């Protein structure tokens, strides 16, 4: 027997720490005091963050103007699809009581538009949008091709339903002088979207790149004519188009439209005073009983945060503290009993 | 390949010895065995077929098919095919490795060498080439290659001894004997080569203890039974050679017929898991229906107005149909709710545990250089839930080594172990000096140290001499001298071996016997006793006696047996001695020793002659022969003079008492299965603390059939409930009924064995998989809430691994109650995970003013929170942080982020713009402060309630393990399990320690002289007598030890 055990020493399992489950280990023992302290500290932290968030949210200046009803005549016109080529303008005056300091951002906001619909989200062709194959319309149902079978570019339900109102903000210095507030349309998209995800087909001439395709049915103009002022902003890399193509998670959403160009009168931001939105009303919302609005907003360190996050932090902090106090009470009351157990 | 498939069902087997051509026409299988399942070609189809019989795989396949329907498909096909392929591949690799090892072991077995008689010559042949009808030669300690008909052997009368440990786990030797006509063939190769007998027998079957057949040879027929058959898997023992003819080969052998398909064992957790998975599946269906109805309503109310932007697809122009399709889509999306991957994780965890078991040095047995081996990975967690341990007795509880420990001679105890160590060693030295001079054949390993006995022997105390003489005379041991001149005893029962060896070491050496004489060496003088009668042992007499005439002419009856029996038969003058001896016996019994009482009687010549005549008459009688003999035995075995008692220790395996005690403390009931007699079983029960004196009533249940036993058990139970409601704590020693039945239990026992070992070492409970379920619930329910959200959660499986490395966990139980808590927790977490980001993202812009609440950013935020929440949860559940835990917990988070960044990278998008539309998302979202604030809040909100809940639970309702942990913390170091020393129960018990592993029939064997070598003079007078019933002895001998089923159950109150 002894010889045998010498013959096969290999059968003795290795004495490594892993195999013997003897790795140096830290035994996580959360003592009552540690847990209670943890709760207390978490409460303090949450309340602190909540207060900061709420205070900074308060500094945000925001103006929202819902123009669904205000441009009722235009809305009516758009209800009839036959009037798609008729232009309809609408001017909405408003007064800014306080200066909006710093960067000011202009958004359009839609209510009740289900950009998060499952079939809607899928109805796009990324390989078309990245310019590799402009005729690739797979997944684009129900907007793959026109009636005569020509592939649509950009295809799909998302592209077809693109928001196409134009909004111009003018500053009314006085009753006679209306200054068009300078706005930048660049920098409203993600860098990766603009330079990676969306690319025009590589052709000398943009219109020939789109040859063999047709425009989406709801669009008045083909993709390569989206921006008449800036030839570099046409086709799939049009900023407004890219912004629209980044689908929203909720049926109510606001998307960045323009940024304030801080020059001349507007170096400090938007001064208080009277303004007006001049809107070319193209996008029909009455058909799905939606609404649309235009929003001007400033930002804070955490972006354009709403009150929710701050409140949620406050509530969490308060609940944590409540839990802390009740746990403390329970623990103190039971301490005696515990000592008894320990002695057992 | 399908080696075991037969063309037609075999009804009867006809085999002709030494005639391969003749046997070939029946196309019997050869001796090659295949336990492997596949070969290279068949592996893929068979393995896939097997794998797709599993529910989990079928489920995945079903999902895959659903996803191929474009109207329904809601996830890309690779979300399903990736895990499916992963699981199937992993299983296939595991199966392939298993099968590779099976191939290897098959090869090894098939290539074993054996000597086969081919062309009148003994040739070495591989096992696999042995054919039915071949005659093969076996040598001592060789494995038997196939099921053989024993033809002849080196032992007289064609006897041979086999060990059947591989077949039924029994280590004691069994006797097989050849037909007398064939045993004459001996080792004569030329005659064996001419042997052309034809065996007609039953078709291959799995009954290990049955064989029926007929051998036709030289015009006469001889019936064959199991006693002539040596089965594959046995080992030849104490027999230098034997010849056998192959009857069944390879897969037809009884061993292989028994090793059928291993049944997949399900643990109770598996069953619970299956139930829960079914519930979850039902839950999923319900959810699907609810969501589909919701979809129909939405499509009806809102979706219709939205039609401008999103036409109906062709063929789904109404909302009800849309709802129907949505149902299937949701089934696909929410498929992760059904924790199918749980099975895989559990499998992996079990595998890990079994490796830890195999690696554990604490479970390494250096004596046999054997590490612990987990033979199945499916039952690991059951080890933490064992309620009953079924144990074999011999070999598991005991070492099957008997040692002569003590004796009481004429009212004096010898062999008492003294407490003072120095004194004891002193005595040992003395004993050696004395012992050698007295007995030249002293066995140096003999552990009996008492120089008082030596002195008594030297002084010539007549009682002591008589006592030892009796031990040397009254037994069934056969002696043999090997080439070196050493005496070798062939013992039939280890008890007798111990007694005879003890006598030998004390100077009364049993030298040899013939059917009529016994020669012993008494302190150096050879004395030959005439053996006049042998009053054999049986289970009712519980004693055996020999009547001998010593050289002086005195006739003496020497008897040994159960104290209870012998004490009734003593001469009245023995009363004082009886009291004293019976006290000693109680003491021995209290120490768990097996006792025998020893007595003798002087007979006068005339009386004996009369008696002997009557015995011969009785032997010749046709009617009531047995009863008459029994009556005569009773008649002569009376008025005995008590000499004393012996105490033999059935040596327990190391640590048995401690283990049994721990098991009882763990409230684990032990059933011992044994082929031993009731007395032995009870004795062992006491010896290893399974039964203790404070148990008042031992219920003995004796019944021959299952019905009887059940009935008696029921009665005993009623009885118990009347007195004491702690029946559940009872240990039961259950005696083996049928060998087959034991076989079916053996498999269980293998598991039991290592459970025994594990529990002997630590009371660790492996229940970590419970958290795995948690994990799955965590990762799936948020998906449920989110609905559409999918890709980013797939890498969660990496989380399952940390559980593997948490040995310190104790108290997590898995039951339906816990499960619902988990579900509630899961729902809460998923709500937090969804609604906090929802509220925070609503109407919010990013730091650069950009739109932030897009679907992709939302998805990334939730996925990140989810991964971190799950990791924190796991971290909280990990109480034992090793480097591996750190690697896995931090590693899984790191992996998540690296995979996230990779999937959202420009490069991947450039290559597959279709599959990776999330390009740039991680970079954009994870640089936003407010997203991190959202993630942080989500974590706090999800984790804090759990911590609070646990804190309160530990505080308000501490479990035992909580207390132990606190206690451990207070102690700062773990204390070893208190080992319980076997308690010495001094004479408190009045029970008998009688236990004698002896079988009936050996007396006859001895007096017939059948098992004696030719060098002894052939018996004369005794032969006629025994030829008369020459078949009966071997039948008795080979008869199954106990056909009576008796068991006793016992209530036991365990003090915790």
Automatic annotation (TrEMBL), chain A:
One of its GO terms (biological process) is phospholipid translocation. The keyword RNA-binding does not apply. It comes from the Eukaryota. Its main location: membrane. InterPro entries: CDC50/LEM3_fam. GO terms for cellular component: endoplasmic reticulum; Golgi apparatus; plasma membrane. Keywords: Glycoprotein, Membrane, Transmembrane, Transmembrane helix. It is found in: Membrane. The keyword Nuclease does not apply. The chain crosses the membrane at residues 35-57, 307-330. Pfam families: CDC50 (PF03381). Belongs to the CDC50/LEM3 family. This is Cell cycle control protein.
UniProtKB/TrEMBL annotation, chain B:
Residues 971-994 are annotated as: Disordered. Residues 971-989 have a biased composition (Basic residues). Its EC number is 7.6.2.1. It is an enzyme of class 7 (translocase). ATP binds at residues 392-394, 496, 537, 560, 594, 674-676. Its main location: membrane. It catalyses: ATP + H2O + phospholipidSide 1 = ADP + phosphate + phospholipidSide 2. Keywords: ATP-binding, Magnesium, Membrane, Metal-binding, Nucleotide-binding, Translocase, Transmembrane, Transmembrane helix. The keyword Translocase applies. Mg(2+) binds at residues 392, 394. It is found in: Membrane. It is a multi-pass membrane protein. Its cofactor is Mg(2+). Residues 15-81 form the P-type ATPase N-terminal domain. One of its GO terms (biological process) is Golgi organization. It comes from the Eukaryota. The chain crosses the membrane at residues 52-69, 75-93, 276-298, 318-344, 819-838, 858-876, 888-911, 931-952. One of its GO terms (molecular function) is ATP binding. The keyword Heme does not apply. The active site is at 392 (4-aspartylphosphate intermediate). Belongs to the cation transport ATPase (P-type) (TC 3.A.3) family. Type IV subfamily. This is Phospholipid-transporting ATPase. The lineage of its organism: Eukaryota, Metazoa, Chordata, Craniata, Vertebrata.
